[in-house]
Amino acid sequence: MSEMVHSVPHDGTDAEARPVFAEERRMLGIRASAWPGIIAPVVIGILMLSAWEAIVRIKGIPPYILPGPILIGETLWSDWGTLSGSLLITLRITFAALTAAVVVGVSLAIIFTQSKWLEKSLFPYAVILQVTPVVSIAPLIIIWVGDINLSLLICAWIVAFFPILSNTILGLNSADHNLINLFQLYRASRWQTLRYLRLPAALPYFLGGLKISGGLALIGAVVAEFVAGTGGSASGLAYRILESGYRLQIPRMFAALIMISLSGIAIFFLTSWIAHLALRHWHESAVRREN
Amino acid sequence: MTTAVGAAARPLVSIRSVSKQFANGTLAIRGVNLELRDGEFVSLLGPSGCGKSTLLRIIAGLGAPSAGTVDWPTSVHDAGGEAHPDLGFVFQDPTLMPWANALKNAMLPLTLAGLGKGEAEARSAEMLALVGLKGFETSYPRELSGGMKMRVSIARALVTHPKILLMDEPFAALDEITRHKLNDDLLGLWWQNRFTAVFVTHSVFESVYLAQRIVVMAARPGRVMADLANEAPYPRDALFRTSAEYAHLCRVASGTLREAIAA
Q1: For residues B178 and B192, what is the distance between their CA atoms, to the nearest angstrom?
Q2: What does A67-97 look like in DSSP terms, one character per residue?
């Protein structure tokens, strides 16, 4: 903001009363105050892993009961060829489901806010879809749909789409009432009101939903893979976990598990980053203000 | 101060026997008659709950009256006979779009009217400069102070060069120094552009400082109690604010308001 200081007119426009924003020193591109939040959990993680490795070695626990982190790391390395292929399959379903959830969720939300009757008639069924455990309907979907990949996609979509739908509906309906009046005053069309007012107002809510749905899409994909099980032709990470379990390849099971967790974390950071980029100029959630 | 008399042959707005009853049965205003003339600065003065904001919204077309009519004899009418008055509205809050910068906010009416981006931006920038915000075109609302946000709001209302500017207690939330400055700037804009200004306020001082005509309202139900003319000459400035004439006018208006509330 320093470039603006010179242009402030001291003529009583009360430009001097503008809010002050926190400008922080950065280390390696990250705010200085954010570093403890990164270092602390990393230190805890290293301590826990060391303790785990130590216990496994001291007690001589066999790897088919509990492998140590070093062995898991080695397995991750040696089995990377198989595991990365499975990771790709799981991620492909996850992102396809998330994309479908965004398209269907946002479209339905827009349609619902244009017609109260459609919302009243259809929304309860969206809720039913949401509250029915995906594990219980996945077998049916797999039988009906036939194609295993499409079945997995549908299952993951069912889990992921509701937060986007309900958040976007909330967002589309939470435009400032006076701004809506203003748009009426200037005789804005429905389309203009949607484009210039309701959609931007809904953006923070939608992005909140996206953050939740990103994780849910992965969970949905993995759960559906479990249900499809070894009988299916798919070979995602859940399939690898089942397979390793049957073969008592426990280190590989852990390696697959870690890949699922890391994927979830990566998806969370990705959606958080998208939200930050989209909102950094204006939304309170992206602003640090000095008191 | 005398009671305002007479009206031009064709007023800009003619409000006849307007009443407004809300769905819950509250009678917000009853039997309001008012004519607004081209280019005058009118203040609607009254205590909270006297329906002055309701009346302003009815004038703006943001809610139909339960009874009575609002006519715009000199404005454009569509095929259905509905008037399309050329108006600007300033709310009590700045009511800006937080996702848009000052320039985009101020050009909203032009965008909605389908004006080309280049011309809309040029006119918006020009209006921002007129309200004292040159250099802040790319600032987002959260980066601006309360007074500056109100200036953007005024720029947005004036960017179409409307015939009438309706303001609903626009400066009530600002500190006194900023309010005085904005009052002066508003008077300057009005003096140069000669739109009709309708200014809702509960402040006697603000009314007397700004308006040529003070419509005093009373509550429960909201109704017009007096229509005072304020003949103090323009331009009015800090000197006027400390003059004996101003003090006298404030006393008269206060007295009328007190009677209105007691009635």
Answers
A1: 21
A2: --HHHHHHHHHHTHHHHHHHHHHHHHHHHHH
Residues 6+ apart with CB under 8 A from A26: A32
Query: Consecutive 10-residue runs of chain B (263 residues): their mean pLDDT?
Result: 51 91 88 92 91 92 90 83 86 94 96 93 94 92 92 94 93 88 91 93 93 91 90 87 91 92 82
Measure the CA–CA gap between B64 and A87, rounded to whole angstroms: 61
A182: nearest CB among B89, B98, B148? B89
**Chain A residues whose C-beta sits inside 8 Å of any chain B C-beta:** 1, 4, 7-9, 11-19, 21, 176, 178-179, 181-188, 192, 196-197, 200-201, 203, 281-284, 287
ipTM of the complex: 0.90
CB atoms within 10 A of CB B62: 17
Q: Per-residue pLDDT averaged across A12-23, rounded?
A: 73
CA distance A253 to A226: 13
Task: Classify domain B11-77+163-263 at the CATH class level.
Answer: alpha beta
How much is the pLDDT for B59? 93
Instruction: Pick from B143, B158, B164, B175 the residue to mutate for testing the A interface (most A CBs within 10 Å).
Output: B143
Domain A68-286 has CATH 2.160.10.10: no
> Closest to B135 (Cβ–Cβ): which among A7, A12, A283?
A7
- B68 phi, psi to nearest 5 deg: 90, 180
Q: What is the mean predicted confidence (pLDDT) over A62-84?
A: 92
**With 80 as the cut, is the pLDDT of residue A219 above it?**
yes
Taking CB atoms and an 8 Å limit, are B61 and A185 in contact across chains?
Answer: yes
Residues from chain A contacting residue B132 (CB–CB below 8 Å): 9, 11, 13
Tokens of A31: 């705010």
Give me the residue from A11, A19, A185 closest to B142, CB to CB. Answer: A19
Are A283 and B132 a contacting pair at CB < 8 A?
no
CA angle at residue A100 from A174 to A92, to 5 degrees? 135
**Minimal C-alpha gap between B260 and chain A (Å):** 30
pLDDT of amino acid A69:
94
pLDDT tens track for A264-275 = 999 999 999 999
- Would you kindly state where each structural domain of chain B is located, as residue ranges? 11-77+163-263, 98-162
Interstrand relation of B196-201 and B67-71 (parallel, antiparallel or unpaired): unpaired
Peptide bond into B109 cis (omega under 30): no
Looking at residue B234, its pLDDT comes to 87
CATH 1.10.3720.10 in chain A, residue ranges? 68-286
| pLDDT at position A1 over 70 | no
Yes or no, beta carbons of B132 and A9 under 8 Å apart: yes
